[in-house]
Amino acid sequence: MKYETVIGIEIHCELKTKTKMFSGAPVTFGAPANSCVNEIDLGHPGILPCVNKEAVRLAVMAATALHCEIDPLVKFDRKNYYYSDLPKGFQITQQFHPIGTGGYVEIESEEGVKQIRLNRIHMEEDTAKQFHNEAGTLIDFNRAGTPLIEIVSEADMRSGKEAAAYVEKLRSILHYLGVSDVKMEEGSMRCDVNISLREVGTTAFGVKTEIKNLNSIANVQKAVEYEIQRQSELLDQGESIIQETRRFDEAKKATVSMRKKEGNVDYKYFPEPNILPIRLADDWIKEIQEHLPELPDARIQRYQSDYGLNDYDAGVLVNNRDLANFFDCVCEHTGEYKLAANWTIVELTAALNKANYKMDQNPCDPKHLADMINMMKAGEISSKQAKTVFEEIMLGKDPKTVVEEKGMKQMSDTTELLRMINEVLDQNPKSIEDFKNGKDRAIGFLVGQVMKASKGQANPAMTNQLIKEELSKR
Amino acid sequence: MELSSINKNNIRETVLQAIKKAKALQPALNAVVTFVDVEEQLQKLEMMDPQLPLYGVPVVLKDNVNTKGILTTASSRMLSNYIPVYDAHIVEKLKDAGAIIIAKASMDELGMGGTNLSAYTGPVNNPYDTTRISGGSSGGSAVLTAAGVTPIAIGTDTGDSIRKPAAYNGVIGMKPTYGRISRYGIIPYASSLDHVGYFSTSIEDACVALSVLAGRDDRDMTSSYEAVPNYLQSLNSDMQGKRIAIIDNVQNAITDSKIKENFNTLIEQMKQRGAIVESVHLNEDLLSVILPTYYILANAEATANHSNLDGIRFGMREDGDSVEEVMIHSRTKGFSTNIRKRFVVGSYSLFVENQDKLFRKAQKVRRLLVDEVKHVLDTYDATIVSATGSIAPHPQDSIDEQLSSEYLIAENHMILGNFSGYPSMTIPSGFVDDMPVGINLMAKPFDEQTLFNLGKAIQEETGLKGKTVEVKL
Amino acid sequence: METKDQAYFKRLANQLMFDVSDQEIKELQTEFEILEEQIKMLERINTDGVEEMIYPFEQETQFLRDDVVDHTIAREDALENVKAVMAGHVHVPKVVK
What we know:
The structure holds three protein chains of three kinds. By secondary structure, chain A is α+β, with helices and mostly antiparallel strands. In chain A, 40% of the residues lie in helices and 20% in strands. In chain A, strand 9 (129-133) and strand 10 form a beta hairpin. In chain A, helix 7 (321-331) packs across helix 9 and helix 9 packs antiparallel against helix 10. By secondary structure, chain B is of the alpha/beta class. Chain B has a domain at 3-237 and 443-462: Alpha-Beta Complex (Amidase signature (AS) enzymes). Helix content of chain B is 37%, strand content 15%. Chain B contains 16 helices and 13 strands. Chain B is globular, with a radius of gyration of 21 Å. Chain C is built from three helices and two strands. In chain C, strands 1-2 form a two-stranded antiparallel sheet. The chains are: A alpha+beta, B alpha/beta, C mainly alpha. Chains in contact: A-B, A-C, B-C. Chains B and C meet through helix 10, helix 11, helix 12, helix 13 and helix 15 of B and helix 1, helix 2 and helix 3 of C.
């Protein structure tokens, strides 16, 4: 039988604020356990929540970038359940009035650009972090109360690829907005995938499973593809799908059952009486919306139209926000955009990989790289020399100094170059003959000989030109 | 005891005397959960300005007011070992005004009661007749004020938890407007109904106390920005032309003729002072559902509010083989039968399939009830009724905040002040069978001044300013 | 409505993380009978078109807290009331998530 896959995704994203969603305690990653808390985060008796303005601002940014309709009257609700990582015994969330509704994300799919609709985006608070070992469970409340946004998609995705593309695109948008670190491996972005199958041609939803613990985009795709296969095999055998929560086991490359869902849990949602409705000023919302950072799609567009980059280069750069930002800095100092893109994408990335540096440890000054590119363009150094210069730039050196110190000035003196060219021509009559017989390849060989004779200092473009001229004279 | 009787030249003596008195009364009243060591506070006071409004004044806090480093139990076994890591907002306010906190007073468990019989440390007795109840939930604070231990004692009021014990113990019980005093650091009962208030023996002291306690606190998002007046300075007992409404549904429901007589005498006195006192009649069908409406709302909010009491991060933790078992054992042992039953009711009314019929229905009825009150106060300065239909009962005759098929409007009308958030005050009006009785006033939001002015007139008529009782030991 | 037998109340209680005794269940059953009557009384009140009242005063606020670290408690304070502490963490029996 043929099945259609139906996928909806819920994403939790930690907002990059200095303090918690409802308390003035710091949000810090990697601090000693229980050192970044106050009575509110611990759910002590008598505490009251107080909404963080910056969290609301970041949520408005995200909702705007995702084309949601924004509710300017912010309200919160209680979601009631008991768990050791939930200090108050309820989570303050936005069940009834999410800050953003509707909206969409555009992804590249096999049928071209596809819109994945969003159901909602709402604010809430994170839980504590638990560590399980032989002696029991250890709880660190530092994470408790960290501001989160939850982004809920409609069930619009149809394949593992689309699911991965959606998460990737959302991650990129939130990263460009600067609202979150979006590190799946560190848990600052968490992804739950709901997946069900139905016979092609039918519209009713099948029984779904929810996959948790997906710590990379690659795993999103793998988990979905595994789950599609698992569910279709079951259906083919006439068995039914059990509604359950599964997790992706990286070692087994398979989803495994965590727990069955015994009906729907009743979270007994009700409006939070301790937070009055908060009216966001229109001016404030407008100001946030008008100062949104450039989003990935807009940047790809700009790279193509302003810098003349091709799809691929623009895509590679924008895929890595820090790399793209670096590229933008390089372009402030050179008009050679294509070269700048190549050097950023190929050489810089390779050099960073080799040195095992992350982008934020990049020692290369974008101005230096731009200077070097300009020197290449002016024929002051050859591309071969540039590689040597670049190695020094990666150590923090100014390319001009490097060129001087190494005596790399390219031989652009025509007289000297001509003398050398004629010497080479004299020594290679066979090549001259080949050239006359229409073998253009011969020029390359001759240029190479001149470069060799000049110990790499001849300007290759100029050499090429002069050889052609001299050959025509013979 | 009144503020004016505090000898500012010998604060230490005054404070130590208050503690001594409270300790001497403990076997008879059982009002105190914890005595506070005052040495550090007395030392700090030496650096403070003697002109401060509560300079050197001993005060008592209900035991649901968090005090940093000092046991705060909310009279529940669950919190019987809880040492707060922070001070409630009003504790800062009181200390800044020069007050000395001498004791934490008994209350109904988690504030969820009206008799003070459910305190973990046992019932609190009425100082006028120790065989009778103090009323609750702020029973300890009420009796300590009535017995003359301190001029001011802090209470909280979710149903009528200040105003009813005030009536039973012959003291003033003030529940200001919702949002007037910050709730930050008060162990809650039901957030949308909880109010912080206090007891005193004179209207003048009540004025001073509110000026100290009131004001915006950013940590309580429901606290008001409304400016805090100097109530004492504006105090004026001139009743000429004041419009006062008697809610006749309440008065008609009172069967005790002596209480009726006490009320009627006072009304005549108010009229003689030039007040226009008229009877109004509220929708009886609505009044008859005050109790279920309250019961559903209060218990629903309480269930959620007290979900943090799981033994994991504070409070009594019982052992178990799993986290779930730890929680279940701790909460089973930590809460009394009544509390657990009420959590069940509260939770039941929040179930998705029940919300329309219970929780949301109650929220809607709440609005209709508030509209009734608002309607009256559109044309009157205040309402006036007998605070309770009887004197403080004996424990076996007492009715607690529980569901009942009986119509008990005379006993639960003060809940209207919690539904609406409007300021409401009980003030002693005399004695019936040697036991105090009181009348209850309610005014427009943030118009506490009217309550004080009316209270001042009543106080002048009754002559009960500063009245306390010598407890027969 | 579901029949409210012993198991029903036990389950309700356990969802709230406590137990109820047989005696307590009996009392609950009586109280729920009263509650049912009271619900009927509530049902008689016409609330068509009436909004739920969530707060005593429903005026909107503009206040939002500035994102400034203003209050952190010492780790010792955070753990002071915790019965079981291990390596600076709150310790509980192993939970399986």
